[in-house]
Amino acid sequence: MGNDHDVCRCGCGAEHLTARQAEIVSLAAAGLTADQAAQCLGIATSTVQTHLRTMRQRAQARNGVELVARAFAAGILVPGSWPPPLSDHRCLAVRWPPGP
Questions:
Q1: Residue-wise pLDDT tens digits, 37-54
Q2: Fewest Cβ atoms nearer than 10 Å: which of 4, 8, 15, 31?
């Protein structure tokens, strides 16, 4: 595991989530607590909490709800099914207005 969030694959220059962070934000969007997400992933609760804090800071989100909303807005999470699936997109940049 490395700092693959530092690599801007799409050329936008924005922050990107690691694969693990994307898994965690997906579980948060599905309503799991940090304890439940940790158990699901087989990692420590403190590790999940650290990932969530890091993602909130990098996304400039004030709380977990805003982090999940930004993940949907950025196309990281796909609306329309439950639990929300992940796309292949990991970029935290939100285009406005949204478009193709």
A1: 999 999 999 999 999 999
A2: 31
Query: Structure tokens of 9?
Result: 């694959």
Contact 90, 39 (CB under 8 A): no
pTM of the full structure: 0.82
What single letter denotes the amino acid at residue 34?
A: A
Burial 70-85 (b: 16+ CB within 10 A, else e): bbebbbbbeeeeeebe
- Whole-number Cα distances in Å, 95 to 49, 81, 100: 27, 23, 10
CATH topology of domain 14-100: Arc Repressor Mutant, subunit A (1.10.10)
- CB 22: neighbour CB atoms within 10 A? 22
CA–CA gap between residue 80 and residue 89 (Å, rounded): 16
Element (H, E) at 27: helix 19-29
